[in-house]
Every structure is written in structure tokens, then in C-alpha cells.
Known about the structure:
The chain is an alpha/beta fold and 204 residues long. It is built from 6 helices and 7 strands. It has helices at 10-27, 52-63, 82-87, 100-111, 134-142, 170-180, and strands at 30-32, 40-46, 69-73, 90-93, 115-119, 146-152, 157-164. Strands 1-7-6-2-5-3-4 form a 7-stranded mixed sheet, sandwiched between helices. It is globular and about 45 Å long.
Amino acid sequence: MMQYTVYDSPAARTLLRAFSLFALKLTGWRIEGQPPPVDKCVMIAAPHTSNWDFIYTLYIAFAVKMEVSVMAKKELFRFPFGPLFRWLNVIPIDRSKSGNTVARMAEEFQKKEKMILIVPPSGTRKKVMYWKSGFYHIARQADVPISLGFLDYGRKTGGFGPLLMPGGNMDADMISIRGFYKNIRGKYPEKEISAPLRIPEVRL
């Protein structure tokens, strides 16, 4: 059975776009860049240091009329929040099954004509030493580009950077990606990654 989401209701989309534009203006946030000009991609959401990141990400997505899918740990789908998260097109993820997420998301890309999957590469809002490489493996396996989305709390600006097609050299690609985020500040900068750019082969 097909899942009914906010994007299936024109009235809900219109209302949420108006509310998102109002909320962004009220809080002093600006949108920078253009949404990715592709039907399918993995969009990095970084830095991820606060629960507010999810809220502002949705505000920006609704404001620019961009349909997105977001992954979240399955524990968040317990009553009464499960129906709301599914309506917002949030996908439950079982973190106990290593590597399962990559295959599942690649399969989702194959089934859908359009899909912009938002993934926080840190995997958590807590401070970590390395980005997880799951977002990169999903893009590689699904054969889709990576879009560099960001929230810069220092400038109160969120938006979209360039597209990158993952190649065979993950370390080189990660240097380019991390270079883009070098001067972008999260809500809690002390939780941002300060480790070397090299990331281990750890999947979501």
C-alpha cells in the first residue's frame, strides 16, 4: 500500500510553505543557492548538532517547494509520533542492522521516479570523531549525485551548495566535500567534527 504523505496534499503543501516562509522570516534566516536540478540525489545535511536542524531543514524544503525524504532512527516512530513522521516522509531506520540502510535506500531510489534523500553524515547530533560514510555508499550504489546542503547558524543561512558525483576515490571526494563545510557553523560548534578528513569505511 502506498504511503500517504504531505506531498500528496496540495492544500497542506501550500499551507506549510506559507508557514515556513513566515517562520524563516520571523527568525531571521535566509535561503542561499538553488535546489539541486536533478530528480534524484543524496543531500548532505551538515553540520548536525541540534534537533533544530530538522526543523529548519523542513522549513527550507517547504519554502523552495522541494520534496524530500529524511531518515530517522526507528525508535522515534513510537506512538504518538509515528504517523506524523511518516506523513512528513520520514523513513524509519534500524541502526542495529549494519549495512542494511545502504541497500534499502538504494532500492528506494530504484523504485521512485523522484527522490531527494537527506542524510546527516555525522549520523547523530552528538559530537563524533568522523563522518559516517553511509551517505556516500548510498549515492554510489544508487548511482545518484551528492548535493551539499547546509545550515550555517553563524550567518543564519541555509541552503544548497554544488552537486558532486561520487567517483572511485572516496578520500579525494571527502576532501572536496569537507572543504565546502569548513567555514559553516552549526548551532553548537563544540559538537562539530575536528578530526582529520579521512573517514573509515563505516556504513549507516
